Amino acid sequence: MTSTADASSNYRDLRDQLDSMTTEAFRPELAEIDQLATLEIARIMNGEDATVPTAVAAQLPLIAAAIDDIADRMSRGGRLVYAGAGTAGRLGVLDASECPPTFNTDPSEVVGLIAGGPTAMVTSIEGAEDSRELAAADLETLSLTPDDTVVGVSASGRTPYAVGAVEHARARGALTVGLSCNAGSPLAAAADHGIEVVVGPELLTGSTRLKSGTAQKIVLNMLSTITMIRLGKTYGNLMVDVRASNEKLRARSRRIVALATGAPDEDIERALAATDGEVKNAILTILGEVDAPTAARLLKESSGHLRAALATAAD
């Protein structure tokens, strides 16, 4: 049982840590922001958000290096796993959930873990973020391999759940990335790739759902999107692996085939019907002038890369 003295000491240690973090810094110039007109507050907030891309730009070489390593492992069948608590965890779950409809990935290929489980997406789970052991237990269910990548996400860079996830994954031989918004963070130090997007103090002291959250969303967008580009999930800037699961996406599928091929509507409908609605295959039947079974074979042989399949079809 924790004594009162131990609890007091732990509190002081945590307070000292928070005092040293850029993301937690108090901004006296904004101490009376609640007295300002709504439009003026909006202008200040908008100006704050405008600084985030510059902070991300400073980390682009590190982000690119991480992406190349992630894509290399995923090309061998590895998975991309995000792990975080609170806002950081929710952003990871969001990014993972958007990959199946956007890139036709299996839900097991890009996974989002949040401290406290799915309930924590909408309800705060007290104490979950403080447990390295919980992160290890969550990752154990995935049976990590050296081809997998675990991205720990934490604005502070000290959240035990995120740090514990990276430490556990690294011990299992998986690639690790630590994404934080403070320089010199334990999370970055624990990872193979440390990415620290230092956005500075928040508009509301310590509210890292603001600039820090925006920065994390930008970087997570990059990690997943550019990895999928490297894996051949796009053709130019067209989402040729999009899953047509509703009317909007079915219309988008037809538009993508039209943009890629310039073919008339009747040819597009015929190609999509022959390929069971698979956009990439339909494009290959039109541009490569092959039938649907041949298109499927060429894409399999090229590991799903449409440009490579088209080059083979032209030979």
What would you say this structure looks like, in words?
The protein is of the alpha/beta class and about 325 residues long. It is about 55% helix and about 10% strand. The chain is built from 14 helices and five strands. The protein has helices at about 5-20, 40-50, 50-55, 60-75, 85-105, 130-140, 160-170, 185-190, 210-230, 245-260, 265-275, 280-285, 290-300, 305-315, and strands spanning about 80-85, 110-115, 150-155, 175-180, 195. Strands 2-1-3-4-5 form a five-stranded parallel β-sheet, sandwiched between helices. Helix 13 (about 290-300) crosses helix 14 (about 305-315). The chain is globular and about 75 Å long. The termini are far apart. The mean pLDDT is about 90.
Structural class: alpha/beta
* Helical content (DSSP H or I, runs of 4+): 40-55%
Major beta sheet summary: 5 strands, parallel
Number of helices: 14
Distance between the termini: 73 Å
Write down the overall mean pLDDT.
92
How much of the sequence is in beta strands? Answer: 5-15%
Strand order of the largest sheet: 2-1-3-4-5
Number of strands: 5
Any idea what the radius of gyration is? 23 Å
* General form: globular
Along the chain, the helix and strand elements come as HHHHEHEHEHEHEHHHHHH
Q: Give the uncertain stretches in residue-range form.
A: none
